[in-house]
Amino acid sequence: METIIPKTSTVFSALLRADLTTQWRNRRGAILSLMVPVIILISWKGYIPKIGGPATLANSLCYGLISLGLMGYSNSIARDRDKGIFQRLRVAPLPSWAIMMSRLAVQLIMILIITTGIFIVGFNVDKITLSPAGYLVTYFTAAVGGAVYLALGQAIVGLTKNAETVNSASRLVFLAFILIGTFGGLGALGPQIQEITHWTPYGTVETIMAAGMAPAKWDMDATNALLVTLGYIIVFATVGIKQFKWESK
Hints:
By secondary structure, this protein is mainly alpha-helical. Helix content is 80%, strand content 0%. It has one domain (8-243). It has helices at 8-25, 27-43, 48-51, 53-82, 85-89, 96-124, 132-159, 163-184, 191-198, 201-213, 220-243. Helix 4 packs antiparallel against helix 6, helix 7 (132-159) runs parallel beside helix 11 and helix 8 packs across helix 9 (191-198). The chain is globular, with a radius of gyration of 19 Å. The chain starts with 7 loop residues before the first helix and ends in a 6-residue tail after the last helix.
């Protein structure tokens, strides 16, 4: 009897539906990723007159993307690897890249949801409005910014086999970004630290998102920040892909 091998697109669609179902069942983590930037946005209301609405939205959204990439994605990948889920998926009739693309597609949907949630809260609570172009460009810059933290999460998982160690490492990096954004980015640690912070993954992502919310003010600094951000994605993704092991043992 001839063995019928299903099309890659068919298997990928089934895998994507399964990953979406899993994400829905674990929606508490998704809600947490959304609540983090919302709480920060509301608490930073006093900064709006000082740094402007777009910058306030951008900083808040940064925290949501960091939470999604480091606390959500990296830990879910580490747990599934520890449970042997990836080993079982690899015997399925689909290429290995499709397994990860399905996970990343779900995360992209989450980025769009978090971004939309920030827009809604910003409008209803802080009365921050953007131009139609600002909303559109911000979705793009949020996707690019989210890719940085997803790639960083992938690098952490690639360099660390144990799920508990991945959890600890991601929490440590998350805390570092929180401190960078809260103190370094706002100039509380001096102008030199603020300049260094500007070119960290947090700083470049915040820069392109703030500029994307006001496209008319996009300048060379934002363009350079975008190029540096793309460089971070390439470096982190290369490390994460090359070092990734499909099993924890």
